[in-house]
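In this section we walk through a basic example: taking a raw amino acid sequence and producing a predicted 3D structure, encoded as discrete structure tokens. The instruction is simple. Fold the sequence below.
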Amino acid sequence: MRIVEPDEVASWVGKETGVSDWVLIDQERINQFAEVTEDRQFIHIDVEAAKATPFGGTIAHGFLTLGMLSHLAESCLLGVQGVSMAVNYGFEKVRFMTPVRSGQRIRGRFTLVEANERRPGMWMFKYAARIEIEDSPKPALVAEWMFALFS
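The resulting token sequence is shown next.
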């Protein structure tokens, strides 16, 4: 995470703040997510049955892909000097554009869209978040993701 001075924040609006490393979404991760969420739809966990679908195999849950944002963003978001905590404030938009097939790698790309100091020491940030699939022209997911930062 890059820490910037409060008077530098405005200069980051409209700029990319980071691109994560690639992360493998393998069948084991998909199966574990299915168990934790109790979403055991065959397209995610039944390798043989999923071969007969238009995807040709199993795919990650959309919510697994969405849930990976936290990990992908770790090194990509901005912090503000003097701020001690940031919390997930929610999403304005989330779109699942392309399914992530088992065995593919994803990464996150983040751009700061808005940054407002609501009161001294309390900021609201909105990022354009994009999860890319290696060797795919279309992203897996695009979203507007908001954070509240507190000192």
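Looking at the output, two observations stand out. The chain has a mean pLDDT of 96. The chain is about 25% helix and 40% strand. In the next section we compare this with other chains.
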